[in-house]
Amino acid sequence: MSNYSKKISLLLICIFFTVCSFIPTLKIQAAVTVSSIPIFCYHRITPNPSSEYDLTPAQLESHFQFFKANGYQTITVRQLLDYQKKPALLPKKPVVLTFDDGTKSHYTEALPLLKKYGFKATFYIFPNSTYGSKKRWLSWEEISELVKAGMDIGSHGLTHPYLTARNEMDEEQYKVWLDKELVQSKKMLEEHLKIQVKTIAYPFGLYDRQVEAAAIKAGYQGMLSINPGPNRTRENPYRLKRRIVVNTMGPKSLINILADQALDIAILSPADGEVTPNLPVVRFRVKTPGVNSVRLEVSRYQTVLQPDAKGVYTFAVPKLKRAFYTIITRAKDGNGQPYLNSWSFWYRPQETGSKSSR
Predict the structure, then answer these.
(1) Between these two residues, 134 and 17, which has the higher pLDDT value?
(2) Domains of the chain, earliest start first
(3) What 3-state class would DSSP assign to 188?
(4) How much of the chain exceeds pLDDT 90, in percent?
(5) How sure is the predictor about 168, in pLDDT bands with cuts at 50, 70 and 90?
(6) Where are the alpha helices (DSSP H) in the chain?
(7) Rounded mean pLDDT, 49-74
């Protein structure tokens, strides 16, 4: 073999081992790529359910067993905000558990199970509840125990109100009241618990652009609705989605929910959180590859939409009552992968002489 041939052979060998040395790194990077993050919203945990939102301890544990057996790792909402800045550090199969309202059952029933399975969760508290019945609501001491156990705490308003409800308030009165609900609740939680409160879960899931702006001004870095759908790592932190858990959800329901990927859409109208006096025309584009049709749900209307020549999906809502509505979009690609996204708006036709239009 000539010297030239030997040099070529040595060069090829070096290239081969250099490429091979990068393969494990590439595999690791691919393994931690996360396209969507589900957030579950739990309420009371009780042996005697009186509402569809009540789960028994056994039902909650069955959910935890499912997550554990299938390799899901829990992160808090606060961690989710941090991971959005460094998505490569996310666990391979993240799931976020949240508990709303601060009922006593979160301490007596949920916390022991969270400790048993090594899970973390975020608890959304409205501070005025601590002045209520000690049999029903968490005390400051019990909330402090949640913090000591590594749980995250967020605001649920000061009094758990409809944040969008003006009642008989004029504009200035409403702004003062709204700021109190958002600012005072955050302040009380931080002072009593010696923590930083970064997120708020809108009571009843109700919000609009004015509420969102007030929450940002109050210092919240993340806001949670109850619009269904998973969250992308690049999801707007002011519009995080959550799936409300009801007591009819078993393992099959969890499988279906966790199978959903985030449908990537560009909303044209109505905007998320918009207040409109006119019946809306729903318009959006789909960015997810391989999706050719979308099933849309709004109020009692359900329809399958096809895009027009410009790639715009359109549905003119024929009739609505004055209320808060969520638009839900579902689709599948050519491989059968399900996708889901949603956003909300207020329909408030003008009514003369009314102050309670919110």
Answers:
(1) 134
(2) 35-259 (3.20.20.370), 265-347 (2.60.40.1220)
(3) helix
(4) 85
(5) confident
(6) 3-31, 57-69, 77-85, 105, 111-117, 140-148, 171-179, 185-193, 209-217, 251-259
(7) 97
3-state secondary structure of 327: strand
**Per-residue confidence band for 34, with pLDDT thresholds at 50, 70 and 90:** low
Other C-beta atoms lying within 10 Å of the C-beta of residue 326 = 16
Is the distance from CB of 296 to CB of 328 less than 8 angstroms?
A: yes
- 85, with CB counted inside 10 A (0-12, 13-18, 19+), is exposed
**How far, in Å, CA of 5 to CA of 352, rounded?**
91
How many whole angstroms separate alpha carbon 65 and alpha carbon 261?
A: 22
- What's the distance, Cα to Cα, between the start and end of the chain in Å? 87
Residue 297 tokens, joined: 């749900």
Q: What's the rounded Cα separation, in Å, for the pair 228 and 328?
A: 8
pLDDT average, residue stretch 250-261: 95
pLDDT of residue 134: 84
pLDDT band at 35 (very low <50, low <70, confident <90, very high): confident
Amino acid at site 209: R
Specify whether the CB–CB gap between 110 and 121 falls below 8 A. yes
Here the tokens at position 172 are 């200035």
Averaged confidence pLDDT in the chain: 90
Angle CA(157)–CA(158)–CA(162) in degrees, nearest 5?
55
Residue 31 predicted with pLDDT over 60: no
What is the spatial distance between Cα 63 and Cα 152, in angstroms, rounded to a whole number? 20
Q: Which residues of 286-300 are buried (b: 16+ CB within 10 A; e: fewer)?
A: bebeebeebebebee
Contact 94, 34 (CB under 8 A): yes
* DSSP sequence for 103-150: BTHIIIIIHHHHHHHT---EEEE-GGGGGS-TTTB--HHHHHHHHHTT
The phi and psi torsions of 8 (rounded to 5 degrees) equal: -65, -45
